[in-house]
Amino acid sequence: MEFKSKIGTKSGPFRVAITQERVNAFQKAIFATQTHLIPPTFVTICFEGITGVLDQIGLKLNQVLHAEQEYIYYSEYQAGQTLVYESKLVHVLEKRGKSPMFFLVLQTDIQVEDEHGSLRPVSTANCTLVYKGGGE
Amino acid sequence: MKLQVGDVLSARSYPVVTPEQLKLYADASGDQNPIHQNEAIAKSMGLPGIIAHGMLVAGYLADRAVEAAGGKPLKRIQLRFKAMTLPGDTITITGSVRKIENDEAHLVLEAKNQRSELVSMAQITVPAN
Predict the structure, then answer these.
(1) Does the beta-carbon distance from A62 to B34 stay under 8 Å?
(2) Is the pTM of this model over 0.90?
(3) Cβ distance of A62 and B66 shorter than 8 Å
(4) Which residues in chain B have Cβ-Cβ distances shorter than 8 Å to A69?
(5) How far apart are CA A90 and CA A9, in angstroms?
């Protein structure tokens, strides 16, 4: 497999509505105590861009391991609003050896659309996935 | 409450992880990867059985950091996933304040299981005041 040439591969934009029901279910699943806020990791719902990029570079979600995740936060958002996001392959690191490993960094830019249709940055997500390309 | 370098966060233990919780998390997060819900598929992928979403435990870490910050939103979180969590495991979160700079506190939090194995760790930046 060769991924360096795939840097820049994009997927999106996608839209996901933030419902109070979904926020409540997410809070319940993680036993949230700070329920006055939408949980910081709720932006993980912006997921489709990751599978979209993987699909374009010939990988499936179950072929990679989630090694690292970073979120940088810019602003809050609320139930009733919509998140708009796009993912991009930004970095590839290859560790050569008997069984080569690839570290793929996918960046997702997440914005919120308010009721007037204007967009504001919410978070930048950097997801590091490991693909063990052994045998190819 | 103002955070200071060296502050140790009180440990928080969570209820035992269950398949029902993983289903709830999968539905809420949208991550329907079958390795988190289907025992046969998880085993066919070489796993010991269904495993928890790494981001589920990340949710614990982030919630604990918000609490430490007096309920204020986080500025940044950087997570490393170190070991799998399986149903039956019990996760405990610990952490401390490592650095204060420009009114921001840098926390390091760890999630360990009942065997004291490091499951994931997080560097989290929060408002210091």
Answers:
(1) yes
(2) yes
(3) no
(4) 54-55, 58, 77-79, 81
(5) 8
